[in-house]
Prior knowledge:
Shape: globular
Oligomer: single chain
Helix content: 25-40%
Amino acid sequence: MKFCGNCGKELSGAGRFCNSCGAPVEQMEETASSLEYVETRTTPKFNFSKKWVLITIAALVLIGGGTAVGMFFLNNSPKELFLLSEYNSYQQMSDDWNTMYGDDLAFQEKLLESPSSSDIKLSGNLDMDEGNISYQEEMLLELLKQSALTIKTDQDPIKQASHSTVALNIDGTKALDVEYVQTKKQAGLKVPKIYDQFFYLNLNQYGEFMRMVNPYYQGPETLELNTLQWNELKLSEKEKESLTKRYSKFLLTAMKEENFTLKKGVKFNHEGESLSLREITFKLSPAETNDFMNSFLDQLIKDDELQKLITDRVVKVAKAASLDDQVGKDLTDKAYVKKELISGLKDMKKEMNRLNYPDGFKYVLLIDKNKQIIDRKINFAVGENKEFAKFAIETKNVPMSNHKTFEEVSIGIAPKDAAEGKMELRYTNTITKDKDLRKENIKAFFTFENSGDVASKVDFTMNSVFKGKSANKQTIERDFNLRLGGKEFRNVPAFKGSIYQTKDISLKDKYSNQKFDVKLNVQDVSSPGTISLTVDSKTKLKDAIKLPSLNADEGKNVAELTDDDIEEILFEIQNSMEGIFEDFGLVDY
């Protein structure tokens, strides 16, 4: 068996050239070991790991579908209180998120389905101790201070057409710019400072152009630019509703009433605040935990509607990215993808059955009179044989006096023997709201210990002030500190900085204007300094965009260039480059 040394495809017959890329066969003598490697590389099997990728997609679809239980309960049993409180808290979190970022996300979604124009300007600076830098570095820093990069883009996602211009300006003068145009039928590039016309390609002449570059080319004649629209992937309201109903029913059936207990009048204290709450505990024995996991996987295995939902999206992604060539199987075949998805879920069930849960599963909620979760604790251990890890997860959402709310998420993972090490992540945020003012005090901490030694440690704090009547029109000031430690980050410096953001978004008037002024101070190094970056972005939704014409009058078709054309173009480019070097004083007379 012979393989092409250029593209890796199998050679057939006694031809002198590769049928795939056109490279000469004489240059393809391979050893047996290298041939074995090429065969493995170019025709990979859809192995077990790829099934787990599909399963991951399934989990994401479930999470993204909003599978919290959304139904009306009549008698408010402990189980129903538990599920209703989870649903209420999910809804509250969703409402808060939409209040803060709803229009930002809605505008970004409109950009994926409407024509638009955007104008982005980037500029920056680097201030360093002059005593620690050379003359050449000082000149470069001065040049950086005078430089700005602008990016202008007109795009129509539905027509799959765009026109982008990237320009470098120095001291207010355009030093260099590049234009790029793309449609379903053409692609073109122009660098006006070097050559004042577009070099373009009709995509149906792709094969002709490739044979100019490589006479032995035998690939596709037409270049297809596959794109994928967000609307093709996101869950519809009908799909979300259907998922919610099915998995609400599953939870109501799988979570038994006898596994729930309710206590009233439980005292909860936090920073001087005292609340009287109801405590709901959901507890499973080790055997019940294993049964619950099996029943959930059985639900996924038999859920034909979910499998179709996932399969359709996998196929769309595969078609857009041409994944069938990369994984050696046709992921554009729905029957094949569904079969692999079900097979992967069954394999996962087998793997899960090897695990045990020595402490069972415990899930405790503290809820207020509005059935909102104030505190949530989840504890379980999972492993195989006598080796297992303990998980402790806690969240808090505590209303406080003076218009404050305290939020916390903490995750702890440790082996059976705590002396062997642990991983801990903790995030807190104290939020203060007062009319048009919102303050946040974020603290994040991560540590990973191995046998008593701190392998890695991260401390992050950020104080933010939001000013404005609405989240659409406001200014945001942020000050942050980042310090890394432990063996992994022994020589990493500390950072502190600030971000000043102005935001003006209007869905009605179809625009989004945002500006970021970022300053980052590098500490604990021999040459401390401050990096400054400004990003000024203006975007406008439009009914239509206008693109430059790509034709013989406006440019050069690269698939039709003669040798004389190429010689003339190269001569003109050389003259242009010499002029640019003279303008920047780079010519040595």
